[in-house]
Structure formats: C-alpha cells, structure tokens
Amino acid sequence: MTKDMTRGNPIKLILLFSIPLLIGNIFQQFYNMADTVIVGRTIGVTALAAVGATGSISFLVLGFVQGLTSGFSVITAQRFGAGDEAGVRRSFATSVLLSIASTAVVTTISVLGARPLLELMQTPSDIIDQSYAYIVCIFFGIGATVFFNLLSGIIRALGDSKTPLIFLIIACIVNIVLDFVLIVNVHMGVAGAAVATVAAQLLSGVCCLVYMFRRFSILKLKKSDWKFDPAFAWEHLRVALPMAFQFSITAIGVVVVQSVLNGFGSTSVAAFTAASKIDQVATQPLLSFGVAMATFTAQNYGAGHFHRIREGVKKCVVVTIAASILGAAVVIIFGGALTRLFVGNAAAEVISLSRTYLTAVSLFYWVLGLLFIFRNTMQGMGRALVPMSAGVTELVLRVVASFTLAKALGYLGVCLASPLAWIGAAVLLCIFYVRTMRTIPNEDEPAPPTTV
C-alpha cells in the first residue's frame, strides 16, 4: 500500500498524490464548515459570529499540533525514501511517544488560557460566552486532533494519500449528523458543534489506526522500536518544532487580525467568518499541491534524487498558478451565493461584507500558492527554520497591515492584511529556495545531513 515517489514522472506523481489529498482536504473543510453553516442557520447570526471569533485561537493551537505531527512525518518519509524500513518503524514509534507528551502539555495550557485569550482579543460581549463554550470543547479534544493528524501524516509519508480521504468522508458524514442531533435535538448550542467535530476526528483516527496495522507491514512495531533514543527524538523535534512554531507564529497574526476585526462588531465578524470558510475551501487545491510537494521532496531527498525535486517544483508552480486563477474566478462570481448558505437571504449586510473579503483576497491566491510550494519543499528537505523565518515575516506584515490599513480603509483594510503577509513570506521563501538549491548537487548522490 506504499507509494514510492522516487521513480516516475514527477508532476504526474504529484498530481495523482494531490487529487485524493484535495478531496480529503475539501471534506475536512466541509465538516468544519458544517458547524458554521448549521450554527448560522439553526441558532442565528450571533452564534455564527461566536464560532467565528474562535477561529484564530483554534488556528493558534491546532496549527501548532498540526505542524508538530507534520514535522514528525517528514523524518518518516525521508527514511522511507532511503529504503530504511527499520528507520521507518523507529520514526513512527518515536513520533507516537512525542505526540502523547505534547498533547498533555498543549491541552492543559489551551484549556486554562481559552477564556483569558478571548477577553484579551476584545471578543464582543454578546458572543463571548458562546465563543468560550465552543472553543473549550475543541481544546479538550486536542488529543483526537493529534491522533488523526499523526496517523494520516504517517500514511501519506509512505505515499498513500487515498486512504485518509475515505476516512475523512466518513468523518464528514458523522460530523454533520451529530451537528443536527446535538444542536437541534439535544439543544447543546454551539458546544454541540464542537463535540461533533471532536468525535468525527476521533473516529477518523481510529480508522487510520486499524487500517495501518492491517495493511502496512512496514509499520508493525517491535519491542525494540519503542526504545526511546534522545538523539533520534531530537532529529524529529528539530524539524517538527520549527514547523509547529511556524504555524503558531502565523496564527498569532491571525489573532491580531481577529482582534482588530472584533472592533467592527458582530456583523463584520459573521461576514468575515462566512467568507473565510469559503476562502479555505477555494484554496484547498493550492494547499494540496503544497502537501504533496512535502512528501515528494522528502522521499526524493532521502533517496538523493535532487534533480527530481527541481523538476517537481518547476512544474508544480505552473499548475498552481493555473489553479489560483480558476479559484479566484469562482469565488468572485459565486461569493455572494455561497455566503447565503451560511446566513440565508435576510442578512444583506453580511453578504455584502463577505463579498468584499472574497474579492480582495482571491486576487492574491497565486501568491499563496507559491508560498505553499516553496514552504513545503523546504520542509521536505528538513530546512524547517526557513519556513519559520517566513512565518515571522508573515506575522509582522499581517500585524502592521491590520492596524494601519484598518484605520485607513476600515473593514477592507482588515481583509487585505493576509494578502500582504503572503507576499512578504512568499518572496522570502523563494529567495531561500534558490539559495538552498545552489548548495545541493545537480547530480544524484546520497542526501546530505538534514539541517534546520
């Protein structure tokens, strides 16, 4: 069930790997979006704003654990590309141990800090209680998020992007059903939406676990694989921690943007929330190409096939730009209609503000696509500090833009903060990519030691 990406046409492999990943990511967005749609249509615009106000905090914490587990799978993919089956098993076992420890720490900090952070962000008083009820349930379920992200990441590291798709589809259906049951029938309010999301992720993780041990003989761990080696653990952490902090650094900027946005009132928050959900679905092809590049690069880097990395990047850039133009056209044309899925026809101001966001942001999708390609390529080679540096750049630009442009342009200025941050980060990543490839041989040879 593994897929060796060190042989065959690079762009064909990347696209074939991306397609299931894209469908899976869209379904993941759908079951995240299901909370928002069902809350907005069954409880009301205020509840929609309450869930939306937690988006940046959720990204801050869940992005950290997602980056952490993604970093662990980079080492697994490199060992697989190098043909080191014992190394693959040891990497998997080490990743599990590190994930358990990190889950305990992150869950404790997040649950205790949820309410103070919402207050610090000046969450509107009419929605803060509902926001807290939602996000604290999500944080109590961080273990389910880590569980699924780690196992699905390991499966993808071995070249299988199809199986996580199946489990995400199942989770999406379960999440939607539970949303209706817990919100409409049990009357749990926004907390019901959070419980439904956690339960769906836990189910996906269990499915991954059962599948892995039945189909991947390479992952059948021995007692010796569980022996904790501090040096080998550090090899994982020195890649994973910068990736995790890169997500969190980006998320801090999003938290600042959310804080500025909160000052415009709950109507603007609701519009921004609905538009963000549409935006996240529209950019999934770009994200999928980036994730595919991470696995493709890691396997070929481990095998010493550097010319394939160069070829893969060049061709993926062309495909990404084409997908960006198409995605922008769709959201600009259909943005208003899509927003009505969240709020119905009554909230005319919400629909108008949502279209403003989608038009402003979609024009820069091509920049975001390039950012994903270069960031994930650098991560696949183990250069995790480079994306983190780009994340710092993104943070600074997003914070500065959100305050200055909000004063000058109002709500539109808040919408433009992210595109300006993408531009700065993408330029930096492009420069680092070119410099890094100059240090790597044009001809294939054993991979140099992984450095951050």
From TrEMBL:
One cellular-component annotation, GO: plasma membrane
Residues passing through the membrane, by range: 12-31, 43-65, 92-112, 132-151, 163-184, 190-213, 316-337, 357-374, 386-405, 411-434
Membrane topology field: Multi-pass membrane protein
Chief location bin: membrane
One Pfam family it belongs to: MatE
Subcellular location: Cell membrane
Superkingdom assignment: Bacteria
Key words of the record: Cell membrane, Membrane, Transmembrane, Transmembrane helix, Transport
Any GO MF annotation of the entry: xenobiotic transmembrane transporter activity
Protein name, per record: MATE family efflux transporter
Species assigned in the record: Neobittarella massiliensis
